[in-house]
Design goal:
Blueprint (H helix, E strand, L loop, with lengths): L12 E2 L2 E2 H9 L5 H7 L7 H28 L29 H15 L1 H11 L12 H28 L9 H33 L35 H17 L3 H4 L29 H4 L12 E5 L2 E5 L1 H6 L3 E8 L5 E10 H7 L7 E6 L8 E5 H5 L4 E6 L2 E2 L9 E3 L12 E7 L3
Parallel strand pairs: 3-12
Antiparallel strand pairs: 1-2, 3-4, 5-6, 6-9, 7-8, 7-12, 9-10, 9-11
GO molecular function: oxidoreductase activity
Keywords: Membrane, Transmembrane, Transmembrane helix
Protein name: DMSO/TMAO reductase YedYZ molybdopterin-dependent catalytic subunit
Length: about 450
């Protein structure tokens, strides 16, 4: 019970803070806060609509997070070639990324990007449904509310940051001023932590609101008869609601339609084939060229600084195994047993394509240099700089029957942009690790 002092004051506490404290804050609200709060008058806002959008996000965001973490593992962080390299205690378990199914990375990365884009309307609708809370003053009246608001700040800021940087990255608009991979990775962990905290706090209310259902707003009078929900403890319901312009179910349908439209404009970049022309958000355009080499590239030969002299008749592939070293020219490679496989190549930006590759198996090259049981193979490119001018492959990637040093694609010689005179193609490997313009392959037995 609050106590009263001789001077008439009390030590009464409300919501965890002394009453005079929050009353003083209430008297000194920022200009326009109250008016802005009253200005949000949609009768749609309330626990049910917010919970519907929240439920959709709760069902789908874990899949976006999981596929993102799987894609990080695909880059081989155990070889210090995933970015960011130094992640401290956020390092994921070291695993050998499988080569089967061959479309594994194509699906995980395509799903990560496509689903992430489709959720943009849902995220914006969810923020719209709770935006009046931003104008509540005082912003918190207890320590618990302060912690809740901090988690919300990290949650909202985290998801908007991930969406903005992700969209810019798939459009090759590197306007960040910082490394995308590092920021996106740590941003994902900040968002994930805030999401877990938010779900722990709000899940019971979300379930209760969904069970209660919406008010009966589908009437012959149309959306103008949409009724507000009863006042709620979170203050989502407008204190002075205006007439409705759309029903709640209509709002959900509109958001869902927007998500499906974005999916339809994106998914073609992963499915490839004729649907590629429907992927209007595809960063590499609708016409990657004609002929056997007519499919997208991430980095051209010119951008990589690869000249015709580098890949001319004097080019040699160097194979190493301990102290042993041999060199092979392109005619020598073509004289070896050739193997063909139809394999996808998938990029971090979400696009992928499946082509018919022909070349020498990596395990045959290992045998050529006497590497009977290599643990890894380090591939280096003619490219002299860049994040992905070399890659380390695991043993299972070296010995897969379809892992190739590709010399031809779709029955034709590789073009310069696609890695002539030779490039790596490994099932389920991220596209940037399918090194182009290969110069050396070093097989190692010591890991």
């Amino acid at each position: 019970m609050p106590g009263r002092h001789d001077d008439g004051s009390t030590d009464e506490r409300e919501y965890g803070f002394p009453v005079p404290m929050w009353r003083a804050l209430a008297r000194h609200s920022p200009p326009g806060t109250g008016a802005a709060r009253r200005g949000w008058r949609s009768p749609l806002r309330g626990p049910w609509l917010t919970s519907v959008y929240g439920g959709i996000l709760l069902a789908t965001l874990p899949l976006v997070i999981l596929t993102g973490l799987l894609d990080y593992l695909a880059y081989g962080p155990q070889f210090n070639q995933a970015f960011p390299r130094d992640v401290g205690w956020l390092r994921l378990p070291q695993v050998d990324w499988p080569t089967r199914p061959s479309w594994l990375f194509r699906v995980t990365q395509g799903l990560h990007v496509t689903l992430g884009i489709m959720l943009v309307p849902v995220v914006l609708a969810k923020l719209w449904s709770v935006i009046p809370k931003l104008f509540v003053w005082p912003p918190a009246r207890s320590v618990a509310q302060v912690l809740e608001r901090l988690s919300l700040l990290l949650l909202v800021g985290g998801i908007l940051f991930e969406i903005a940087t992700g969209l810019l990255n798939i459009q090759y608009a590197y306007l960040f001023g910082f490394d995308f991979y590092t920021a996106h990775y740590f941003g994902a962990w900040v968002f994930t932590g805030a999401l877990v905290a938010h779900v722990a706090l709000k899940l019971p209310r979300m379930v209760s609101a969904l069970r209660a259902g919406p008010p009966a707003d589908e009437t012959p009078s149309g959306p103008t008869a949409t009724r507000p929900e009863p006042p709620d403890p979170d203050g989502l319901v407008a204190p002075q609601p205006a007439a409705g312009t759309v029903s709640r179910r209509g709002a959900v349908t509109l958001v869902g339609g927007g998500a499906l439209l974005l999916g339809a404009l994106t998914v073609g970049q992963t499915l490839d084939g004729p649907l590629r022309r429907t992927a209007l958000l595809l960063p590499r355009g609708q016409d990657p060229g004609d002929g056997p080499n007519g499919f997208p590239v991430n980095r051209t030969a010119a951008a990589a600084g690869i000249s015709a002299e580098d890949t001319g008749p004097d080019w040699r592939l160097t194979l190493r195994n301990g102290g042993r070293e041999i060199t092979v020219d392109r005619p020598g490679l073509l004289a070896m047993t050739q193997h063909s496989a139809r394999l996808p190549i998938a990029c971090v930006e979400g696009w992928s394509t499946q082509q018919y590759w022909t070349g020498v198996r990596l395990r045959d090259l290992a045998g050529l240099v006497g590497a009977v049981d290599p643990v890894t193979a380090q591939i280096r490119s003619l490219e002299r700089s860049g994040l992905f001018n070399q890659v380390t492959l695991q043993a299972n990637q070296v010995f897969d029957a379809d892992s190739l040093l590709a010399l031809r694609v779709n029955g034709a010689e590789l073009s310069a942009d696609h890695g002539y005179p030779a490039r790596i193609i490994v099932p389920a490997l991220p596209g940037v690790h399918c090194t182009k313009w290969v110069a050396t392959i070093e097989f190692r037995t010591d890991g």
